[in-house]
Amino acid sequence: MLIIENLTKIYENGFKALDKINLEIPDGQFVAIIGLSGSGKSTLLRCINRLIEPTEGRIVWNGIDITAANDDEVRQIRRHIGMIFQQFNLVRRSKVITNVLSGRLGYNNSLYSFLNYFPKQDRLSALANLERVGIRDQAFKRASELSGGQQQRVGIARALMQQPELMLADEPVASLDPATSHSVMKYLELLNKEDGITVLCSLHFLSLARAYAHRVIALKGGILQFDGLPSEIDENRFKEIYGEEAIEVAIS
Amino acid sequence: MNHTPPSRRAALRNLLIVLAITLGAGIYAYGWTVTDIDLEKPQDENRQSNVQNALRELLSPRIFDQDREIITTSTPFLMDCEGESPALSDSSDAPYVRVTPSCGKAGDVVMIEAFNFESGVQAAIRWAPIEGQRRPREVLETGREEIIIDSTGDFKGQIEVPRISGSSGQIHQIEFLAAIPSGPVRFSKITDEVIRRMAETIFMALVATSLSIPISAALSFFAAHNLMRPVRVPTGNLMIAIIALPIGWLIGENILSVIGRETINFFQGDLEVSVLSMLFPLVGLGMVAASRSVALLETPSLSHRLRSVGEHLVFALVLVFLIGVLGGLSLVIGDGLVHFADSIRPAGNVGAVNWLATAGVDGINGTGNFLNIVGGLIELSINPIGGLIGAFILSSSVTKLTSGALRSIEGVLAHVLGGAMGAMNGVLVFGFIAEIAKGAALLSLLTPLAAALFAQQIVILGHASWWARRKKVVLSPIERINRWIIALATAVVAFAITFIQLRVGRTVVDGTLPSLETIDLMGVEVTRYLLNGMIIGGVLGSMFGLVAGTRQPFSIGSVLYNVTRNILNGLRSIEPLIMGIVFVIWVGIGPFAGVLALMLHSIASLGKLYSEQIETIDEGPIEALKATGAGHLQTIIYAVVPQIVPPYVAFTMYRWDINVRMSTIIGFVGGGGIGLLLNQQINLLRYRDAGVAVLAIAIVVSILDYASATIRERIT
Q1: CB atoms within 10 A of CB B438
Q2: Shortest Cα distance from B646 to chain A (angstroms)?
Q3: I want to staple A15 with a disulfide (CB 3.0 to 4.6 A). Which of A11, B325, B364, B681 is the partner?
Q4: Cβ <8 Å between B631 and A119
């Protein structure tokens, strides 16, 4: 259970990205976060694993107060939270397998990392995770040689190395074409269904949210605008979230 | 709101443009005057012929040489005769010389003719009086002493009779010296020397570059703002770490370095025992690694912390032992190699095989010497190495042990504790700064500057916490300006107080160092200067600690970044030639001084270039690895290093290229290499010899330029 209470983030330049957000997300839910660019989607996700320090409020996950943790504890907590990114955030010059293995660093000792050593178990599970996202044959290529969809799947495999209980996905398909988008979303859905991983995924397209999410959260200017089932978003709700001018475009 | 008609505005604008152009022209003209531009000098005929000669010789490098046999043919000349003495009428096939007229007085112009010489041969004319030195004569037609026999094998030219007192009635000889080539054409001595020096130059650049790489690569991480800016630690932890540093240094210098030194000595004893005992540190290292491979505990308990401190200690011991092993082995193996080389050095000198053998022996000898130097360096620096290891290990252990307790301290107590520890920190930091500052007049400004920065930080921090208590995060522009003014004023006051208290003014004006007058402080002799600096530091530090408390995060990363950046920028602005002068004073004329100068400058400039590369990397992977729970070091190894390797290699090539260029001229200040040779030849006016050096530099620099550009292109 992830409980967010009164979460507020004000950046140093005075921009209020999140304004008193209150949420309760039960384990195993697939939650889509929608909203315009700059509505606070990325900030919300990054506050959960403290990549961004919240200004006020609390985030409690499985009874642990994430916002009160010190640096060491934050690292311990982060090991259980996977994250994938719009720009994939792979080291493009490194091999795919190295990128995947680096998801395991939090569990390994720095001396090993210095010698570029990973336990055999880690190496096997890296290959297994690549197999799972269907690109085992690409394991020893450079990450930059892969297509966008494949790179995002490497990102998913890297997050899987952490054996996460919660997956944060920051617009995972915004840089991909429609067909690839669906394949990446399907893998996220699979993790949610098979492993019971809670997924928090920010999305641009409402149609994707409708297709994959159990629940949709809409942010507008840092304020929680909507929280409910995907089917509850009708045209009026849509205009509330995206503004009067907006027209819904579907991704097929 | 402008009521001026458009035409008048245009006129005004034109007037302004004209004024600006006039002003610019005036400044530029002043530049011409300052730079002494003078159209008369280049037109001076003497200068023109001098520069022509110099250029001709520079462009006629003495690359090749040939043995020459000097054949002297002379003809008599009667000084100060009245009548006309009959010309000798030779007409043989052998080379002979004729002078017409064969008598005359000083200042007369006489005609010299030479016959039956080999065409193209170099020759010269000398006047040989009965006693005293022979005088070279200049051929009036060409204005030069050097003569080339023309294709007919003859020469004809006029010379002036020299003024030699008391020579009246004497018969002098006019000598015609012809240098007949004999033996094969070969490389000249200067070419051999240039090749040798050029090799020296290239290796100077190589050694300087390679020595600077590890240092500048390490520094570059501290000089990259994207890595350093987010590094923040709670002020209390930092204060404890700083207090532990000097204590750790003392312990390390006195205990760890003894272990290191004993290891070195021990290894110099018996080689076999030494090799066997290398197993010990490896086992230790393995144990450390094995004990760490247990997954990190969810909540670090005290026993866990203690165990990690124990590991730190083992690590320190193993590290210093390994360094000692490295030093000892280097010395032993180095000595062994030198002796081995001596024992197999071939005697005599027979043919190519022998030459090869000699080269091999030289190689072994050189490797031995190199290892000896490495070992010696470790032996020399084992004290500071021990100190450094001790300081860092103690500092990190103490911080780890106390961080739990520090976190539980809150409220007023945190600020009181902060004030107390801040005072100690201030004393330590300012003691350190004052120790540096007492070195020279310019350095003495460091203490007041540091005091000003400290005071400014106190104000900013106090201001922030004052507003934070009023729940205001974002300040209005006026509040920002206010804060800025107060901070600046405080900084100025702190600067002034420190400046006056430490008598920095006297130091700067007179260039004299602060007096080292000591006072007795509870049985300890302390310099008054140092004490004053420490008191100022203590006051500022306690104020800082009181305001900040122990919980406030302190951006130590920014401090390290700024310090590193400023040192690198300062070093970079000093040309290697100037550094060369200083190093020549220290280690004497020769390539070593050049290497040190180039190394220091390379550290600064590579450090800057490297850190700029770090600043331009894709930050995405860093964010991604942080999100997986990876540590700082791990993030750097996996997200930063792979991205910076290619540019690092490229910039290192580029720097080597620059260092070769620089080392060609660092010899001008005594830094060794080809510059030293070039400087000598130019000072001796041997432009043909200098020409060889110039040609060699041009060839090597252009080859390297091309090579480094090609390699850089391949990599990036």
Answers
A1: 21
A2: 10
A3: A11
A4: no
